Amino acid sequence: MNEIHAARGAAGIVIASALMSACAVKLQAPDEPIRFDVNVNITEQKRLEIDQELLALIRRNPELFGLTAGDLTGVAEEQ
After folding, report:
1. What is the four-CA torsion angle of 62, 65, 66, 67, rounded to 10 degrees?
2. CA terminus-to-terminus distance, the chain
């Protein structure tokens, strides 16, 4: 009885390895560029608000952006 189980186990291993060797994974870049169509409308007012918030953040923490306080001279002041 053990011999039958051993033979089935060996046959299972052979079949599994044959199936595994027949499978191949192929990664290939697509022919066309990947596009993300996002329908977003940012008004000039929102852009201005975002610019001002970003400038304020940079002024508070210039070292986070690889800048010094001297690098920010001549940049428009916050309103």
Report:
1. -40
2. 88
Two tokens at 77?
């002041």
What single letter denotes the amino acid at residue 35? R
Lookup: tokens for 12: 């299972």
| Alpha-carbon distances of 46 from 37, 53, 65, 79, rounded to whole Å | 21, 10, 23, 15
Can you give the pLDDT of all 79 residues of the chain as single tens digits? Answer: 556 666 677 777 777 776 666 667 778 888 888 888 777 777 888 888 888 999 899 888 888 888 887 887 777 665 4
d(CA 58, CA 68): 10
